[in-house]
Amino acid sequence: MSWRGAPAWTYGALCASLLTALCLGAEWNARLVLPLRHGQITFAQAGGEEADAVSGEEGSPRTWQKIQKTPGERRASYGFVDFKQDRITFSYRIPEPVFHKYNESYGYRPEDLAALKEWRDNATASSFRIAVATHKSQAQVNAAAAAIQAEYQQKVKDYLSDRGFVLESGNVTRIDMPAVVRRNGPLVKPIAQVFDRYATQHRYQSMDIIGAVLSFAQTAVKYKEPDDVFKGKHTGGILPPITTVVLGWGDCDTKTALVSSILSNWGQMRMVGVSVPGHYLMGVLQIPDKGDLYVEFKGLQYVLLEPAGPGWMPPGKVADETVAQLNASDGYKMYPFF
Question: Among residues 9, 28, 33, 7, which one has the least CA distance to residue 195?
């Protein structure tokens, strides 16, 4: 695995009225491969109330976002400019009960793990009592205890996996970023459809679509670091993609999950997560252009993307600090998303 500068050659179905409002055509459905999910509504619009402006960094366009919460729903509206200088606006709506269920589905709670441990201890004690009452041998007692322990470990792994985490050796938990991306792709398809509409109107190539989604995350979504533990729930320091859109902010790995989940709706997209100490970015399978930075994974070249922002950096360009981190002796790890 390596990275370097490139050479010169180089989301049941929603109602019919929603489909009409989005003006989706057969061409879109051929390119966006995942079905819509019930309960989430998104639509493109010609403009919007430019409230809660996001301060742009030097060289970045003026962007805006408006975040609203009512007893019945959440709504987030955005406006930004992509790297082709096209202005993109859209609004995203989700019923509050649907959002609450979604948001609670990510992250794990110590009391849930404690309940699994209690199940193991009770099962072990019950097994021992039965073994004594039925005059089982010590070997049989040990085998029953080992089987319960194995089942307990699997229950823990399954619980963490369902909550977006993986259990590594030494009982260390880590965010399962590929699983988060794959799980959220179908859920953010309505947002991907907005980008596909602009792509169709403006004859975007694949890198233009990538750049448009990247611009959204970099400039319209504010940079803010989530808490590792929020209201007693361990989050690993990231927000899941829909929560990011509804709240309007996130950090480097949060924004990477958002960009990757949206892009996953195009069947040809292949992506990797790139983790360096204290930072997270991504690469997308594309032929690098002159001067683009990329990583190699299994012999293929993945152009680097820096979703964190707030700097406005096109595909193939990353912050100087990221370059230093990629070159550091600690190295970096890559995680294939698709």
Answer: 28
pLDDT of the residue at 103? 94
pLDDT at 115 exceeding the cut of 50:
yes
Gap between the Cα atoms of 331 and 194, Å rounded: 37
Q: Three-state DSSP class for 235?
A: coil
Using alpha carbons only, give the angle 329, 164, 313 rounded to the nearest 5 degrees. 50
Place of tokens 């964190």: 308
Task: Output the pLDDT for position 338.
Answer: 82
CA 181 to chain centre: 4
Distance CA 3, CA 1 (A): 7
CA angle (21 as vertex; 17, 27 as ends), nearest 5? 105
Is the Cβ–Cβ distance between 247 and 69 less than 8 Å?
A: no
Residue type, 264: S
> Each residue of 319-330: pLDDT tens digit?
999 999 998 878
Residue 293: CB atoms within 10 A of its CB come to 21
Q: What is the pLDDT of residues 183-230, one digit of tens each?
A: 999 999 999 999 999 999 999 999 999 999 999 999 999 999 999 999
Q: Residue 218 in contact with residue 312, Cβ under 8 Å?
A: yes
Domains of the chain, residue spans: 2-105+176-336, 110-162
Query: What are the backbone angles phi and psi of residue 189, rounded to the nearest 5°?
Result: -60, -35
pLDDT digits (tens, 9 = 90+) for 6-46: 433 333 322 222 222 233 333 333 334 333 333 444 444 43
- Nearest residue to 168 via CA among 178, 181, 156: 156
Nearest partner of 213 among 242, 192, 184, judged by Cα: 192
Measured distance CA(102)–CA(77) in Å, rounded = 20
pTM of the model: 0.83
